[in-house]
Amino acid sequence: MALGAWLLVAVGLKWSTMFILVVGLSLFGLLAYHLGQSFHWVEFDGHRIRGRRLWTGGLVEHSVGEVIALQPLSPLHTSLETLLMEQRLGSVWGYEIQFQDGLRIRLSYDMTHVDSLIQSIQHATGF
User: Fold this and answer.
1) Which of 13, 34, 56, 126 is close enough to 17 for a disulfide, judged by CB 3.0 to 4.6 Å?
2) 111 shares a domain with 51
3) How far is CA 125 from the centre of its chain?
4) Which domain holds residue 11?
5) Same domain, 14 and 55
């Protein structure tokens, strides 16, 4: 039904306007998707890793046994901005926790106590 309404609106628009509309909606969808992947907080109680999604407020909970990888986050390319950030933050900008179901939780250094959280998870998982 919503698609039909969009088609009725699109029929009355010029192609250039329709192109801008489609590109704008696509960019908004991409932004919404990536914001939906962000976490407001993440905690570890020794057995379970919990996190609350930033945008949706949904609670995510996994056991330590479901962790398949802990990977450091680092820049993909070197530029002047990257070199300046590396001087400030170091070469590791955060960590990513990967679970068996495909979920990835990214922890960056704008969060507090990231190093102690990762060390606790490494100790519990053996990674």
Assistant:
1) 13
2) yes
3) 22
4) 1-36
5) no
Give the DSSP H or E segment for 24: helix 15-36
Beta bridge partners of 96: 71, 106
Collapsing DSSP states into helix, strand and coil, what is residue 8? helix
**Sequence letter at residue 91:** S
The DSSP output letter for 90 is -
Token digits for 118? 């990762």
- When divided into structural domains, the chain yields a total of 2
Q: Which residues of 59-91 are buried (b: 16+ CB within 10 A; e: fewer)?
A: eeebebebbeeeeeeeeeeeeeeeeeeeeeeee
The C-alpha atoms of residue 11 and residue 107 are separated, in whole angstroms, by 45
